[in-house]
UniProtKB/TrEMBL annotation:
It comes from [Clostridium] hylemonae DSM 15053. GO terms for molecular function: FMN binding; iron ion binding; riboflavin reductase (NADPH) activity. This is Rubredoxin. PROSITE patterns: RUBREDOXIN_LIKE (PS50903). It holds the Pfam family Flavin_Reduct. InterPro entries: Flavin_Rdtase-like_dom, NADH-dep_flavin_reductase, Rubredoxin-like_dom, Rubredoxin_dom, RUBY_RBDX, Split_barrel_FMN-bd.
């Protein structure tokens, strides 16, 4: 089976936020769909290994911040490639509290839900949420997974439903520098060796020392 066919389905890029006790936390997701319009309900697929999964289950609510094509790619690195157990995901990130949950300011819209049902699979929980608030923020187009993959050149976190092992590496034509954390391939005009030591991966925010040369 060619699993790449799944990428012909439509996906967005979202930051899911919830509460760890009284502290906000969250992660990146791309498998969200509207189930009904009245009452408005949203289904969210979340890997069992994501810390956010257990926090949603405990708090009974989650928010969806819809990233736009102009949203800072560092948001994906901050929320997608590190664990909320270890870091404050909202440190340095602009957000507004809606219905008790933090939503990202640098997004094109948000939806807040109360969990009303769940379904378990072998690797993911599907949370069914009833929408209690939502609004449009700005007029930039929503980021699709295709845009993230082809234009931003980002990779899926390993817990994402769309993750494939080759996301971690590009099939090589030699001489590329690849971020060992998120798989971003540097293709800028300046030779990688000449970049300043302060250079950071534009997707996950890791330093130059995290890049490896791929032959």
């Amino acid at each position: 089976m060619n699993k790449n066919v799944f990428r012909n389905l439509s996906y967005g890029v979202y930051i899911i936020s919830t509460l760890d006790g009284e502290r906000g936390t969250g992660c990146v997701a791309n498998s969200i769909m509207q189930i009904t319009s009245e009452p408005a309900t949203i289904a969210l697929s979340m890997n069992h290994d994501n810390f956010t999964n257990s926090c949603i289950a405990a708090s009974g609510k989650f928010a969806v911040s819809i990233l736009s094509e102009t949203s800072a790619s560092s948001l994906i690195g901050q929320f997608g490639f590190q664990c909320g157990k270890d870091v404050d995901k909202f440190d340095g990130v602009g957000f507004t509290v809606k219905e008790g949950l933090p939503v990202i300011d640098d997004s094109c819209g948000y939806i807040v839900c109360n969990v009303i049902d769940t379904m378990e699979t072998s690797t993911h929980t599907v949370f069914l949420g009833e929408v209690i608030d939502g609004d449009i923020l700005g007029d930039a187009p929503a980021m699709t997974y295709a845009y993230y993959h082809n234009v931003v050149k980002g990779k899926s976190p390993k817990n994402a439903p769309t993750y494939l092992p080759e996301d971690k590496e590009e099939s090589g034509d030699g001489g590329k520098w690849v971020c060992s954390v998120c798989g971003y391939v540097y293709d800028g005009p300046t030779p990688f060796e000449e970049l300043p030591d302060s250079y950071k991966c534009p997707v996950c925010g890791q330093g130059k020392d995290k890049f490896c040369r791929q032959e």
